[in-house]
Amino acid sequence: MVTIRIFSLARQLGLQSKALIAALAELGVEDVTPASSLDEDTAKALVELLVEQAKAARQSAQAAAEAQAAAQARAGSAQKEAAGEVAEEEWGEDEQPPPEAAEVERELGELERYLAELQTEADAATESHQVVKLLSELAARPSGPRPETAIEVPPVATVLGHVDHGKTTLLDALRETDVIATESGGITQHIGASEVSVNDKQIVFIDTPGHKAFTAMRARGAQVTDVAVLVVAADDGIMPQTVEAINHVKAAQVPLVVAINKIDLPEADVERTKQQLLEYELVPEEWGGDTIIVPLSAVTRQRLDELLEMVLLVAEVQELWADPEADMVGVVIESSVDVSEGPLATVLIRNGTLSVGDVVICGTACGRVRRLRDWRGKSLPTMPPGHPVVVVGLSDVVEAGDITQTCATLKEARQIAEEHKEQQHQQQFAGDAQRRLRDFYRDLGTEEVKELNMVLKADVWGSAEAVKASLAQLDSQLEEVDINVVYAGVGEITESDVMLAVASQALVLGFRVAVSNQVRQAAADGHVEIRTYDVIYEALDDINKAMLGMLEPVYEERFIGQAEVLELFKVSRIGVIAGCRATEGPLQHGVRIVVLRDGEQVFAGTLESLRHFAQDVSTVEAPQECGVATAEFQDWQVGDIIQAYIQVEVERTAKPAEDSLAPSNS
Ligand code: GDP
Q1: pLDDT digits (tens, 9 = 90+) for 557-598
Q2: Range 446-549 classified under CATH 3.40.630.10
Q3: Which of 6, 82, 512, 595 has a C-alpha 20 to 30 A away from that of 111?
Q4: Which residues line ligand 1 (CB under 6 A)?
Q5: 155-319 architecture in CATH?
Q6: If you measure from the C-alpha of residue 484 to the centroid of ligand 1, how many angstroms do you get, rounded to a whole number?
Q7: What's the gap in Å between 164 CA and the centre of ligand 1?
C-alpha cells in the first residue's frame, strides 16, 4: 500500500505537522505522531479537510476584518458625537476589534496558496500524464445517461486488410452504389470519410483504409471506429498484413466483420479462408462462433448489401447516440489546403452540432466556420452529430486525430490554440513530466497499478512464444505491475508496430529481428522505446529491471547520528535553539530527527536549522558543538537526545524463475 508520513505531507503543504495532527483528530484519526504514516485515502481526506478549513477560516478572517473596519468607523463617529455631533449608528453589544485578524489572514493566505499550488501541480501533472486518455475520452462517443434530446447516430466503420485484397475497390463500390442510388450524380472529392445508406440507415466509412491509419488515429487518442471490416481475398487467404490488422483490431477492442472478397474469381476458396480464420480465434457463426463473415465481390458488387446490413447489426448492439444540443466535439479525419479556400479539415462530429459562423478551436488551429460541406460536397448551414463535415475557415492545417470544439470568442480560441501549440512543444518533455508526475503521485500516494505494455517481435514463432510465456510468468510474480503483451508477431519491427506501441503506450521488444533507421526515427518521433536482443534471458533480465523501475520505491529509515542538548537559547524570530554536542555520526540539515527525553519520544520532525558557531551549516560531524532548531518544536529541555535519520531507498528484486529462462525454440 502507498503511504506518506505526516511530516513529509506537512512539508509539502507548507504546514506544521501539528496542524495536520489536529485536523486528523477531526477525522477521527488519533494517536499519531509526525512520523506516522497515512494511507492514501486518509491523506486525501486530510487534504480536503484542510482546504475546507482554509476556506472557512478565511471567511471568518474576512468577517473579522469587516467588523474591525466597522468598529473603527464607529469609533470615528463616537469621537464626533463627543464633539457634539449626532451619532447615526448604534453600538453593537458583542463587538470587539478582532485580534490578530491580519495574522490569521496572512497564514491562511499562505495555506491557500500552497494548496492552490499543489492543486495546479496536480492538474498539470494529470494533464500531461493523461493527455492521450483525455483525448480519447473527448473523441469517444458520449456516454452516461442518454439525454432526452439525444438522437441515433450512424456507426463509423474502417476497412482493413492485406494489400491488394480489395479495400479501396470495396470502399469505392460502396460509395458509388450510394451515389448512384441517391442520384446525386458524379463522384465526389475524397474528404477522408463517406456515408453509405442502407434501408433508411447510414454508415460512415473512414476512407483511408488499412491498419496504419487506424492505429495512427488511435495513437493520437482518437479511437473513432465502431466496427472494423476486415477484407480477406478469397484467392489469397490470410496474409501477414491480415494478421497485423486482426491484432490491431483486437488491441483496439473493436468488433469485427470479415468480408471475404473476390468470390467472383474461379480460384476463390471461401471455405479455406474461413478455416484459416480459425487460427486467429475468428470462428464463423455457422461453425458455432460469433464472427460474422460475408463472402462478397467488390468488383461484381455481389452481396455488398449484406455486408452493410451486418455492419449495422454489429453496431446496433452498441446503441450509438449523440446529443445535438450538447457542446460540440469533433475529431479531425483528414485535412488539406485549398488554393482558394485555405486550410480544410474533415471533422467527424461526435457530439453537439456545428454551424456556419461558429468559432472553433481545432488542435493548434482556430477560426470562424465560413462554410460547411457534407461528404458529397454539398454546402450546409449546420451539421448534426454523427456525420463527417468539411470545415472551411481554419487558420492553419490540422492533423488527423485533432479534437475540434467550439469556443465563445475568436480571441479565446486563439489563446487556446496557442496553448495547444505550447503543449505540443512540451510533449517532447512528456517523459520527464511523467517521471515527475510519478514522484508526485507517489508522495501523495494516489498512483494506480502500473502497466507495462509490450509489442513483441521475434524471428520465429517459437521464440515469440517463449518470450511471451516468460513474460506471463514474470507478470504473475509481481502484483504491482501488469505486463500485457498487446501484440506478438514474427518478422522485423515495422512502423506499424511502432504505431501500435504509441497507441498502447507500449515498449517494443525485438528478439533477433532487424530495425530500419526509418522505424527507429518513427519510434523516436512517437517517444516509443525499442529494445532488441539476441538472447532471451537478456531480454527478460532487462524487462525485470524495467519493471522494478516502475515499482514504488521502498524507503527505509537509517540512523546517521546523535546529539545531546546542553543549553537552550531564545532567539527572536527563530524561537528556541538547542545548543548541542554531536556525539555520534553527522547531523545534517533537513534530515528527520527524533527527540528523546528519558527514553521517550517527545518530538519527531525535520531538522530545520543547523548551526555551527552561529553559521548555518549543512553538516556537523561528531564530536562538535552545534545549534539545532525547528519551528515545529520549541519545547526543548537540557538533556534531550536528538537522533537523526535519513530515508534510503531499498533495492527491490523479483527474479524470474529459472525454468522460464530456458528458450523453447532457439
Ligand atoms: P487494396 O490494396 O486492398 O486497396 O486493394 P485494391 O482495392 O487496390 O484491389 C487490388 C486489386 O484487386 C485491383 O486490381 C482490384 O481490381 C482487384 N479486386 C478488388 N476486389 C475485387 C473483386 O471482388 N474481384 C476481383 N476479381 N478483383 C478484385
Answers
A1: 788 999 999 999 888 777 899 999 999 989 999 898 999 998
A2: no
A3: 595
A4: 161, 163-169, 209, 261-262, 264-265, 297-299
A5: 3-Layer(aba) Sandwich (3.40)
A6: 36
A7: 6
